[in-house]
Amino acid sequence: MDVKKELKIIDVNDIIKKLWAGKMLYVKSLPIAFVVSYIFILGFPRYYSTDIKLAPELGESSMNSTLGSLASSFGFDLDNLQTNDAITPLLYPDLMEDNGFVTSLFNVQVKSQDGSIKTTYHDYLAKYQKPVIWTIPLSWVGSLFKGEEQKVAAGTVDPYYLSKKEDGIAAVIRDNIKIIFDKKTAVIGISIKDQDALICRTIGDSIKERLQNFITNYRTSKARIDYEYYQKLTKEAKENYDKARQQYGRTADTYTRAAMKSTQLKLSSMESDLQLKYTTYTTLNTQLEAAKAKVQERIPAFTVVKGASVPIKPSKPKRMIFVAFALLLTFACTSIYILNKK
């Protein structure tokens, strides 16, 4: 049995005629879509964003040169990633998961671009954030059933025992701040978003400073412990030397004219002990200076490849793009409806 297949040809002119015949539907639907989409997107608060690029000095590399050369052919600089530190740059983005690091931003003083807001970052996020418009009634209804929360004095927040409100603010900070480490260039990228342009830049500078302090404190922790240890020993040795010197001086003044053998032996013994304490003091003082130099040597240098700037235009939402997409979608749906109907 022969099956005849008919080839259907799409008549573009016929489609255009049908769409033109239903032009009044476009006249009605497109303006409505424009108004509705514009009102909808106006309900979302605008956000500004800025970013920082920071190149920190890394620890000494122990990477094999052959393996490093092989990795570099694929675009990865392993010499910049392999360090003798326990905390590598790859772990820096995980700092935002630590409540202690995040809550350290609570007391940062911020000021809005128009000068109307001047408070801490914690209070700014808690009181001055613009919500999505249609969530306001839901938030109000939810507040009616919310129990009274215990107030916590400023500066007394326990980072690892947060209330529900404080934990929510910490979650907002994590959403606003992202730390990224580029494996190829060994550059730390920090991106910040906020509803105010000036506050966006302020928080960017603050998170950069805190990240630098964290890296510096970690890199110098062992050297600082050694320095404090030698500082303690040197202080004790200095006190022992001063005490022995004063005692030797008093004894020498008392027995200046005495020619007894026992007196001379006592002074000789005290002089030897004094010399020994002086040698101990000078040796420890030399080690103290070396430990101090080691601390300075371990302090990493930071190169700011790109600093935080006050953004001029909001980064999102893209209102015109959203409205254009809504109009395009409405046009497509209207066209399909007209063609199916006819």
Itemize the secondary structure elements and their pairings:
Elements: H1 12-21, H2 23-42, E1 48-56, H3 65-72, H4 99-103, E2 109-111, E3 118-120, H5 121-127, H6 136-144, H7 164-176, E4 177-182, E5 187-194, H8 197-254, H9 261-298, E6 302-306, H10 319-341
Antiparallel strand pairs: 1-5, 1-6, 2-3, 4-5
Description:
The chain is an alpha+beta fold and 342 residues long. 56% of the residues lie in helices and 10% in strands. It has ten helices and six strands. The protein has helices at 12-21, 23-42, 65-72, 99-103, 121-127, 136-144, 164-176, 197-254, 261-298, 319-341, and strands at residues 48-56, 109-111, 118-120, 177-182, 187-194, 302-306. The protein has a four-stranded antiparallel sheet. Helix 2 packs antiparallel against helix 10 (319-341) and helix 8 packs antiparallel against helix 9 (261-298). The radius of gyration is 36 Å and the shape is elongated.
List its traits:
342 residues, alpha+beta, two-stranded antiparallel ribbon, 10 helices, 6 strands, 56% helix
The value of Rg in angstroms is 36 Å
Cα shape = elongated
* H/E element sequence: HHEHHEEHHHEEHHEH
Largest sheet strand order: 4-5-1-6
Q: How many helices does DSSP assign? A: 10
Low-confidence stretches: 61-76
Portion of residues in helices? 55-70%
Q: Could you tell me the mean pLDDT?
A: 80
Instruction: Count the beta strands.
Output: 6
Q: N-to-C terminal Cα separation, in Å?
A: 35 Å
Oligomer: single chain
The major pleated sheet works out as:
4 strands, antiparallel
Query: Beta-strand level of the residues, as a percent range?
Result: 5-15%
Strand pairing plus helix content: what structural class?
alpha+beta
